[in-house]
Amino acid sequence: MRSFLVVAVMCGVMAGAGGPTDAAGEAGPKVYISVDMEGTVGAVTADQLGPQGFEYGRFREFMTREALAAVEAAKQAGAVEILVGDSHGNGENLLIEHFPPDVRIVRSWPRRLAMMAGIDDSFDAVIFIGYHSSTDNSKGVRAHTFSSARLTSVKLNGTAVSEGAFNAAIAGHFGVPVVMISGDNEVIAEVRALVGDVEGAAVKKALGFHSAETLTPDAAYALIGERVAAALARVEEFRPYRVESPIELEVSFKHYRPVEVLGYLRVVERVDSHTIRFRGEDMLEVSDFMNFVLNYDSNAQP
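RE: above sequence
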């Protein structure tokens, strides 16, 4: 890991207090990196994905190094500011001590805009690392949308979306394009189908929900760095993914009771026994509603 860190820190130091500039003297891009874990190299089961899993400690390191590979490549491309969102599980997975001192990291939940917390219109590009396909996808490794235990589908204006497309729509609200994604081959294809021809780093090939043909970690880090560099080299070619407002959100649940209770709210329409519909003015309102659905607990303390 040392070589990744040394290069990243050196890039930051050489840039000076004002940040790196290109040959024309213009400031480089400001980059948001959202990091999940199911799409990390080698990750296939719960053994790797949570504190109770016997391989979790090792895979926190792999997740961190994938994020660092993206950070390093962004810095080498001239990025002047980088914000990293720890967006898996408890939001406390990334080993923050390994990041360069000029990188900021968003941790834990709940937080406004969830996996995109901190994004605004000052950013130039968004990168997704370690992402996975949606619960509507029959092939992806650990395919789910926001909650594998509770949800069976999430739709925006009638179109089923993955976490990647949902988060791209949040970035699109601010006029910021997604330029690169890493994960298995299925999530890359799924996101490209809606968001556009983003750069993709397929660190594993899906063989089933709990199986994959995977690269080695070092090969994955190199590939992620290459694809980030390629994306930022043509950042002007990408366009934000925008969902037409007002936005109709449909959420389908595995169980009846949350649908019944949410249906008591006058802003919620109960579509059927397992599905609700909410209409928001924009992706910020839709994201707030999803945050409420996923996080509200009457027993929450403090």
